[in-house]
Design a protein that fits this description.
33% of the residues are buried. Strands 1, 2, 3, 6, 7, 12, 13, 16, 17 and 18 form a 10-stranded antiparallel beta sheet that branches. The protein is α+β, with helices and mostly antiparallel strands. It folds into 2 domains: 40 residues, no CATH class; 239 residues, no CATH class.
């Protein structure tokens, strides 16, 4: 029986080494969280996709240097809606916010050590495509102000996860400007204006809102991220100026937070499981003889 266990362990190790040495693609699950200020509920999208690690040359299992992401594999756009409970925002006629979004395709580098060494991403563009709606009067969203998350700007594309100035409302009573930015794994600070108490005529003050990214291996360390159960979080910080609250040029901190979790290929798990089961049966057969 001991020989059988040794044989099984050796086979598992061989499969693991083969996987780490040859594979440069991993499936991913993740979340895309949109935080709008500090007094509105966050909008959460889930997605699945595939990641290319280290330019398809370094395989998996070691440091993560380059991460290419192609999102929404097979499931297209996801849609989320949150009702507005903030009394000042609701008083301006906004009943809810809806976002139909999907993850685009992009590349991030360098990742390894980026959160701690002070290095910046030299590759940091991944667009979030879709449409955001500010629903007026009712949450059914029969009337709304539209905002395309990616837009042509004459020379290229601007938008969430890319950069550039986005506007919504035009000449209407509700006007919003969003200064978008590419992704970062570093900490970022944006300004949020809050009113205390939450009533018209309350005291206004500005606070700094900080969010940060990271790259973790399965044990939450900062090495060997490029393997199943590794996690990378990136943020796209945006500054919003709006007239939704009393007074003009009110500021809202806006963050898109992208969390990517590497998962094993189902085929590899099936291969590993069936291989081990076969070896166990073989060992039992030999023992009976």
């Amino acid at each position: 029986m001991r020989k059988v266990l040794v044989l099984v362990a050796s086979a598992m190790l061989a499969l693991g080494v083969s996987f780490s040495a040859s594979a440069a693609l991993l499936n991913v699950n993740g979340t895309l969280v949109t935080e709008i200020g500090t007094e509105l509920p966050a909008l959460v999208n889930t997605f699945s996709g595939v990641a290319t690690l280290n330019n398809s040359s370094g395989g998996t299992g070691g440091h993560l240097n380059t991460l290419g992401v192609a999102g929404s594999r097979g499931d297209g756009q996801t849609s989320v809606m949150v009702a507005i409970t903030d009394p000042l925002v609701a008083a301006n006629g906004i009943a809810s916010i809806r976002i139909n979004a999907e993850l685009g395709t992009g590349v991030f580098a360098p990742i390894s050590g980026g959160a701690s060494s002070g290095s910046l991403l030299t590759k940091n563009i991944l667009p979030i495509r879709g449409l955001s709606k500010l629903c007026l009067v009712t949450t059914s969203c029969t009337q709304f102000l539209p905002l395309d998350l990616t837009q042509p700007d004459g020379t290229g594309i601007k938008g969430v996860g890319i950069g550039g100035l986005l506007t919504i409302g035009g000449t209407s009573p509700i006007r919003i400007s969003i200064e978008a930015a590419p992704w970062t794994i570093k900490s970022a600070i944006k300004i949020d204006q809050i009113t205390t108490p939450m009533t018209v005529g309350g005291v206004k003050k500005f606070i700094n809102v900080t969010r940060a990214g990271f790259a973790h291996d399965p044990s939450s360390g900062t090495t060997s991220t490029a393997q199943p159960s590794g996690v990378v979080q990136l943020i796209s910080p945006m500054q919003t100026v709006t007239n939704l609250t009393s007074g003009s040029n009110a500021k809202l901190a806006l963050f898109s937070i992208l969390t990517i979790h590497f998962i094993p290929e189902p085929g590899m798990l099936l291969l590993l499981g069936s291989g081990v089961a076969g070896l166990v049966l073989l060992g039992r057969s030999r023992m009976r003889k």
